[in-house]
Amino acid sequence: MITPKDVEHVALLSRLELDQQETGKFTGQLNAILEYVEVLKKVDTDGVEPTAHVLPLKNVLRQDAVRPSLPRDLALSNAPEQEDGYFKVPKIMEG
Question: Where, if anywhere, are coiled coils annotated (predicted)?
Fold first, then answer.
């Protein structure tokens, strides 16, 4: 069982300032969580495979297919500056 003193100690370690009302609220919430864990401990899980996720995960990928892209001239048409068919941008690193 978690006491208000425990909550105050964790708050101190976390550099949190809690008033009396918040300390009481968190004490109740943390004890409710621990009570629920006790309920979960009673659930029969024999024959249930351990999993990291409730639902099976899989990547949803599209087929990699060549498609027409934006023509270079059109892509560069609104560029403030361009050079040799590329966007020209300010240097960001000294080298």
Answer: none
Whether 56 maps to a domain, the answer reads: no
pTM: 0.51
HEC string of 2-63? CCHHHHHHHHHHCCCCCCHHHHHHHHHHHHHHHHHHHHHHCCCCCCCCCCCCCCCCCCCCCC
Q: What is the pLDDT of residues 68-89, one digit of tens each?
A: 999 999 999 999 999 999 999 9
85 touches 72 (CB < 8 A)? yes
**Structural domain range at position 21:** 4-41
